[in-house]
Amino acid sequence: MSEHTVAVNDSDFATNVLGASGLVLVDFWAEWCGPCKMIGPALEEIGKEYAGKVTVAKINIDENPETPTNYGVRSIPTLMLVRDGKVVETKVGALPKSQLKAWVEGAL
């Protein structure tokens, strides 16, 4: 990952996402997923622009099968906004940065 995104896994998801303060944007992705790679830079920029307000967490579904199964992830990229341990909204598919930003801003 980078300084503006956080890698999470099955074992630390509860702590780093559900237990986080503030809004967390979770990206369920995989290395082989073209659309996931397309939105990666936009998520990185959102992490930078909203630092201190939003945490961008990425979880690789191939390396961490338990969490996507628990949340019913059937297609990637799946993006979830989590606040206070609860999923407040979900989007499936690659979206342009402008739509991602509007989605995040609507939840702040």
What can you see in these coordinates?
The protein is α/β, with parallel strands linked by helices. It has helices at 13-18, 34-49, 66-70, 97-107, and strands spanning 6-7, 23-29, 54-60, 78-83, 86-92. A five-stranded mixed beta sheet has the order 1-3-2-4-5. Belongs to the thioredoxin family. It comes from Acetobacter thailandicus. It holds the Pfam family Thioredoxin.
Using the alpha-carbon principal axes, give the shape.
globular
Helix content: 25-40%
Secondary-structure content class: alpha/beta
Strand content: 25-35%
Order of helices and strands: EHEHEHEEH
Biggest sheet descriptor:
5 strands, mixed
| Number of separate helices | 4
Determine Rg (CA atoms, Å). Answer: 12 Å
**Strands of the biggest beta sheet: in what spatial order?**
1-3-2-4-5
Whole-Å distance between the termini? 24 Å
Number of strands: 5
Name the average pLDDT.
95
- List unreliable stretches of 5+ residues: none
Family: Belongs to the thioredoxin family.
Keywords: Disulfide bond, Electron transport, Redox-active center, Transport
Domain Thioredoxin: 1-108
Pfam families: Thioredoxin
